[in-house]
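Whiteboard transcription, Tuesday session. T.W. wrote the structure tokens on the left side:
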């Protein structure tokens, strides 16, 4: 048996030669291994690349590096877009080329060790079985590249340019400026003051508005779930109604109700009670912020109420009966039975509520367009980061600074989401499945 094994036809096969040949030209290593079909496929792919897209990729990488050299002729943003696409294509081709080299070397080693190649039909069947998951996920990966990765790369690169109203192609070229935009954000007074103010308000808005809607939803769910309450179905239906109305309709109605001059809240409630001209809900930042928090509480509590109601009904009554036998008070039963059970069942969804409100553009823009104006700042009194980015993009055309702030927002949210994901039980037990 040892003599047969040592006399196989590939005993002098050299994996190094297969590796070098596959590096020189994709597919040559496979031909050396006598895997002719695979070798011809790799050769065809490289020839097609050299004849069709090599010039386009070179032009795209040139545009990515220079962003154009002739004002009025070269369009810097189009060059940036084409450059990002070329960069993605280069990465894809490099991955394919590395796979070609690894495949040639691996098969050369197997042939030298006495491995017998399978027939064509068997090879196709084995390839289908091993590659089936990748074939099924490839359309999703391809879609993700152009929907997620491409816009993300474009936005990140845009943050390192001077693309704004005064450097807009094709009349002017856009230039790479490195970290100049980030430096301006923390050193130039108007940018520094605005960024600190908007960031602080975004955090306050997220924490207070979300916590308040969760608290209201929990309290109402506890009250309705009490055994002494009658007409539960009717009460639950009433509390769900604000959720049934489209949010943008509710926000516009509340914006009219909070109007300083003719709003129903001032005209019919505040002025009859305290007199004067009413409260400047839309013209003073502190009152405008209070108003948007109240509106968000109204919009958000129905979902929390419905969520908590379902969880409360799933808690076994035996636990409360056991607590009654032990002499537990209502507060003790809430603290040791109700609250832990509710938090355990709903914590991921509650975390999502905080993340959603951090980027809750709709209510901020529809209620008061981020106003009122604030002196020495280029953002309104109720603007959060996402609405400030919108204004920088569409109102002042400061695309580069909008990209900088978007990048900072992405890092904050990604870090928070990653931390929360690491704490979940599913992530910790993933390796045990």
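and on the right, the sequence the group agreed on:
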């Amino acid at each position: 048996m040892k003599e047969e094994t040592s006399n196989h036809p590939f005993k002098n096969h050299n994996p190094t030669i297969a590796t070098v040949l596959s590096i020189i030209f994709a597919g040559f290593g496979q031909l050396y291994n006598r895997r002719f079909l695979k070798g011809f496929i790799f050769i065809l792919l490289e020839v097609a690349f050299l004849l069709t897209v090599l010039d386009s990729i070179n032009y795209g990488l040139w545009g990515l590096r220079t962003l154009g050299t002739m004002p009025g002729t070269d369009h810097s943003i189009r060059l940036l877009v084409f450059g990002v696409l070329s960069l993605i294509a280069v990465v894809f081709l490099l991955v394919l080329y590395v796979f070609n080299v690894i495949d040639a070397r691996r098969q050369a080693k197997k042939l030298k060790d006495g491995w017998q190649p399978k027939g064509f039909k068997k090879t196709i069947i084995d390839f289908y079985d091993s590659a089936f998951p990748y074939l099924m996920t490839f359309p999703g990966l391809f879609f993700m590249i152009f929907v997620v990765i491409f816009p993300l790369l474009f936005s990140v690169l845009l943050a390192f340019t001077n693309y704004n109203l005064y450097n807009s192609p094709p009349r002017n070229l856009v230039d790479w400026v490195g970290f100049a935009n980030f430096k301006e954000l923390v050193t130039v007074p108007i940018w520094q003051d605005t960024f600190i103010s908007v960031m602080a308000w975004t955090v306050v808005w997220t924490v207070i508005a979300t916590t308040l809607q969760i608290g209201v939803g929990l309290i109402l769910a506890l009250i309705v779930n009490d055994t002494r309450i009658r007409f539960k179905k009717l009460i639950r239906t009433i509390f769900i109604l604000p959720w049934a109305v489209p949010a943008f309709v509710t926000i516009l109605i509340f914006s009219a109700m909070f109007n300083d001059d003719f709003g129903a809240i001032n005209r019919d409630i505040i002025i009859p009670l305290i007199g004067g001209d009413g409260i400047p809900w839309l013209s003073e930042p502190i009152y405008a912020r209070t108003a948007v928090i109240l509106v968000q509480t109204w919009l958000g509590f129905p979902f929390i109420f419905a969520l908590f109601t379902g969880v409360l009904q799933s808690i076994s009554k035996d636990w409360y009966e056991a607590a009654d036998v032990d002499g537990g008070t209502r507060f003790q039963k809430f603290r040791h039975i109700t609250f832990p059970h509710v938090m355990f069942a709903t914590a991921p969804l509650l975390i999502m509520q905080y993340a959603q409100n951090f980027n809750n553009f709709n209510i901020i823009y529809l209620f008061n367009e981020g106003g009122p104006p604030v002196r020495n700042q280029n953002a309104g009194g109720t603007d959060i980061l996402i609405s400030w980015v919108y204004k920088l993009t569409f109102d002042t055309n400061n695309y580069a600074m909008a990209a900088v702030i978007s990048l900072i927002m992405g890092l904050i949210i990604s870090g928070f989401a990653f931390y929360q994901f690491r704490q979940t039980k599913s992530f910790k037990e993933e390796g045990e499945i």
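Someone added at the bottom: The CA atoms of residues 202 and 384 lie 5 Å apart.
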